[in-house]
Specification:
Pfam families: DJ-1_PfpI. It is a single chain. This protein is α/β, with parallel strands linked by helices and 225 residues long. The chain has one domain (2-224): Class I glutamine amidotransferase (GATase) domain (Rossmann fold, 3-Layer(aba) Sandwich), CATH 3.40.50.880. Helices cover 39% and strands 17% of the residues. The protein contains eight helices and eleven strands. It has helices at residues 13-23, 72-75, 79-91, 101-107, 152-165, 167-176, 195-204, 206-224, and strands at residues 2-6, 30-35, 41-42, 48-49, 53-54, 63-66, 94-98, 115-116, 132-133, 138-141, 144-147. The strands form three sheets. The protein has a seven-stranded mixed β-sheet, with helices on both faces. It has a two-stranded antiparallel sheet with strand order 3-4. Strands 8-9 form a two-stranded parallel ribbon. Helix 1 (13-23) packs parallel to helix 5 (152-165).
Length: 225
């Protein structure tokens, strides 16, 4: 079963590597890290990731996956990437994402009419594309499975593998990874964090979020004609 995971400059590596760690435990999956070239891709934190296949040589995905990250804004206007995603999504059994990867799928036109999630700071932007935003950690709508922000990628991957290979297999992998989150602070979502913390995070990301939202709205308007 071919799992095609898009890598690109300025992605958030945990969006990719969290799910990848889960997926790598299932021998039924053949993972392909795809980009335009085989040159190393540098993530938003400076980590270099090595693609394993180019878009031109990539096999048809059974599972198509797109991570998020700051580089997503560039990707939403990248014609080569959007065409690749559209073509792959047509025959894929599952079309999936984590974090703002869902906005890339939205720009490719392959989430319209579905329910989906995204990082909480960008969740509302999905509505511009005719997508129903859902404030959940993992959202399943037919063969579209999306995860919310960053760390939810592990939940997403376990959910998908439970769908594919059964709950018992997914449970064993969860245990082998000792995935039993007990964070030191109860502030991992805006619903749980103190209002002043939420306000500070919003303020620190305001300029970039305004750019991201303006871009999403413009692309959605262009798609609508």
């Amino acid at each position: 079963m071919n799992l095609v995971m898009l890598v690109y400059p300025q992605l958030t590596q945990l969006d990719l590597t969290g799910p990848l760690e889960v997926f790598s435990r299932f021998k039924q999956l053949t993972v392909h890290l795809v980009w335009k070239t085989l040159d190393p891709v540098e993530d938003a934190g400076g980590l270099r990731i090595l693609p394993s296949v180019t878009m031109a040589d990539c096999p048809q995905a059974d599972i198509l996956f797109v991570p998020g990250g700051p580089g997503q804004v560039t990707l939403m206007e990248d014609a080569d990437t959007l065409t690749f995603l559209k073509q792959q999504a047509e025959q894929a059994d599952y079309v999936t994402s984590v974090c703002t990867g869902s906005l890339v799928l939205a720009a490719a036109g392959v989430l319209t009419g579905y329910r989906a999630t995204c990082h909480w700071l960008s969740l509302s932007q999905l509505a511009y594309f005719g997508i129903e935003p859902v404030n959940q950690r993992v959202v399943i709508d037919r063969n579209r499975i999306t995860g919310a922000g960053v760390t939810s990628g592990i939940d997403f991957a376990l959910t998908l593998c439970g769908e594919l290979f059964g709950a018992e297999s997914a449970k064993k992998v969860q245990l082998s990874l000792e995935y039993d989150p007990a964070p030191p602070f109860t502030c991992g979502s805006p619903a749980k964090a103190e209002p002043e913390i939420v306000a500070q995070v919003r303020q620190s990301t305001r300029a970039f979020q305004q750019h991201r939202e303006a871009l999403a709205k413009r692309i959605a308007d262009d798609m609508a004609g």
